[in-house]
Amino acid sequence: MDTQLTALMINCTLKPSPAESSSDLLGRQILSALAGHGVGIDSIRAIDHDIRPGVQADMGDGDEWPKLRELVLGADIIVFMTPTWLGQHSSVAQRVLERLDAELSETDDEGRPTLFDKVAIAGIVGNEDGAHHITGILYQALGDVGFTIPAQGVVYWNGEAMHGTDYKDLDSTPEKVAQSTMTATANAAHLAQLLREQRYPVSS
């Protein structure tokens, strides 16, 4: 029986809930667009959880990554959101990427990496330059641990350098951001469905 595709947003803002977050706003716009393609949606704000430093699936007593990992493993699409700080992805985003590194040594019942057949798209916001640089880092890291990146699988917004306007302060969604959201989500849903119907082969 066919089941609904699902998407999980991992918001790597530095702001704990319930603080307003530009990356949360853009991420929810992306999730809404995915829902328009029939995808079930969920989200987590990584900073609200005790994610211990390390590169193992479970770093011991008090580590909350194992329960978040189950959400990642249960989703078909990951929406990886990060703000831009000093031209880089956030420290929280780096922590999540490091924990995902553990999946390089984890396999499913057929011996395939656990994140094969899962799709990832990126979302980046900031009132400074850095989106293309961060996209390159996220594409490499997410692809390396097993995710598949769809064509034009990133949505970003850069405010004017040296100014203080955030994405959440805008009166409306910029046209280019809306277009990128539509393209990235359509391609992500399409790719996730293809991978569900025809999974990657087991390496011989």
From TrEMBL:
InterPro entries: Flavoprotein-like_sf (IPR029039), FMN_Rdtase-like_dom (IPR005025). Residues 18-157 form the NADPH-dependent FMN reductase-like domain. Gene3D superfamilies: 3.40.50.360. One of its GO terms (molecular function) is oxidoreductase activity. This is Flavodoxin. It comes from Microbacterium aerolatum.
